[in-house]
Amino acid sequence: MPKWFFPGAIVCGLMFAVAPILIANAPYESTMGLVQKIFYVHLPSALIFLLAAVVCGVASVRFLFGGNPRHDRIAWAAAELVVLFGIITLVTGPLWARKAWGVWWQWDVRLTASLMGWMVAVAYLLLRKYGGPGSDKLAAGLALFGMANVPFIYISVNYWRTIHPTTDVLPTLPPSMGFPVWFTFATFFLLFILLLRMRVRLEEQRAQLDALYLSADA
User: Fold this and answer.
1) For the chain, how big is the Rg over CA atoms in Å?
2) I need a surface site. Which of 55, 131, 165, 217 has the fewest CB within 10 A?
3) pLDDT: which is higher, 165 or 48
4) Per-domain residue ranges for the chain?
5) Running DSSP on this structure, what letter comes out for residue 164?
6) Considering only CA atoms, which of 165, 53, 34, 168 is closest in space to residue 114?
7) Cβ contact 150:47 at 8 Å
């Protein structure tokens, strides 16, 4: 692991300890009250969910055109994080929606596209595990589809009727609400970087171990 990994993990842990305090001290939203505080977890996790899909897609493109196995490992690790942060997003969203809007789920564009993006990442991982020879290239193609879905998820609320607010709401939040959101996002972002680096390192060590086995058999 790089020298910054363990200090980064400590900082991340401290940020996770501080984030709930900031969220608790943030003011209540005028119409939704306490339940709106799910927003401080839901939105940052959704942003990391989309970021992970982009990282997976970009690494897959570089792997397809360059053949560098490191890019393939980054894509694989990022796909796992798409699934992880996607679960957080898809669980916190309905919990918030049920109390705020009276429904668990609606098949609107953003929700459907987000679910589809999460399922693409799950399909990527299943293909890598059970697809056999050539599955790395096929999975990379899936990752491109997942990445192409990201801007559609983000801007869909600006063009279709949906229970979600439009994308111009976040920049207009008052500092008392905006700071906890961005602090939580920074916390999740640091966690994303640490987990991504750790998974890539694990796959590198696994590849080295496989190479030692093959050299021993030879």
Assistant:
1) 19
2) 217
3) 48
4) 40-217
5) S
6) 53
7) no
- Find the helix or strand (DSSP H, E) in which 146 lies: helix 135-155
pLDDT bucket at 12, cuts 50 / 70 / 90:
very high
- Give the closest residue to 157 by CA, choosing from 56, 41, 28, 46: 46
Instruction: State which amino acid sits at residue 47.
Output: L
Contacts of residue 175, defined as CB under 8 A and 6 or more positions apart, other chains included, come to: none
Residue 111 parent element (H or E): helix 109-130
How would you class 145 by CB atoms within 10 Å of its CB: exposed for 0-12, middle for 13-18, buried for 19 or more? Answer: middle
Residues ≥6 apart with Cβ < 8 Å to 141: 60, 64
